[in-house]
Structure prediction request, 389 residues.
Amino acid sequence: MTDTPNRRTVRIAMNGVTGRMGYRQHLVRSILALREQGGLPLADGTVIWPEPILVGRREHALKALADRHGLDASHISTDLDSVLADDSVDIYFDAQITLAREEALKKAIAAGKHIYTEKPTATGLDGALALARQARDAGIKHGVVQDKLFLPGLLKLKRLIDGGFFGEILSVRGEFGYWVFEGDWQPAQRPSWNYRSEDGGGIVVDMFPHWEYVLHELFGRVETVQALTATHIPRRWDENGQAYEATADDSAYGIFQLAGGAVAQINSSWSVRVNRDELVEFQVDGTHGSAVAGLRNCRVQHRSATPKPVWNPDLPATETFREQWQEVPDNAEFDNGFKAQWELFLRHVVLDEPYSWDLLAGARGVQLAELGLKSSAEGRRLDVPELSL
Prediction:
């Protein structure tokens, strides 16, 4: 880190920023947004100043990004090894495709860099745990992106949980997904590798790590998993308009038993048309009340205000059920969730503040995805052992 009386510069090697998530959420809406606001202020008046170094394979794409955002040519590189050998680089961040991530993280840890990475951290549990042990032994700081915990809707849900609103939580029902175009009539919204298992694709690998940390942090550790996967759309068209066979699951239907007794059911699909208020919603039912939380909004229905529905298929419904719920107010300004977690990790690196979303937490996500796929293949419910290093 380069220090001045009022600024601590933190140089961050950002690998994978030419991709959708790495560019939009991590570079533009997190690191560059921090720079635009003048850095991250600390209590003593010091400002953390993040300085990105854009790393990737395509020099022209990196140069275009640097030019677009006013970054000097010295802030791009196609040589990861030389970047990691640079003692002035403090943090290595990885948003590459999953198949490339594990080896790059190993190199960065060996070079003594602090690690911040997208998930999944590896293609299998053994690799994910090996990374966590390597980071522990190297004495570096490490974090894994767990962005959904910082969404306004889930922050409101956490407020309800902490306030005892639900009483005993009985169940969690999650619905996630949308229709990803096949690519023939309209270009797909997601890269084609997502639908090829040989390239690290599949919705279980992508989304079960998210569900693990959401369930773990809000409701309790996942103790068992039973999943059924499907490839509902077997033929798609890639970025060049070429047809290909989809070999990865595009939908997954999971049931999770949680510590404490609650049951979670979460459907994940890239082949479902949206008939809900947001692309992801969680309904939480408890003895004292229920809530439905999405990306931004959260609605509640307390025990004392619960209506009395009566099943009668011979008569039309006379009540609009959605109108019987109350909106939870914001009561705060919510920043971009990716940026909020970046700020916490930067404070962790500079100030050594506590930080729990580390590579071991990332390994739990890989474990749940691995067991979810195994559960579907074997047609049975599986225990989820607690992990340790």
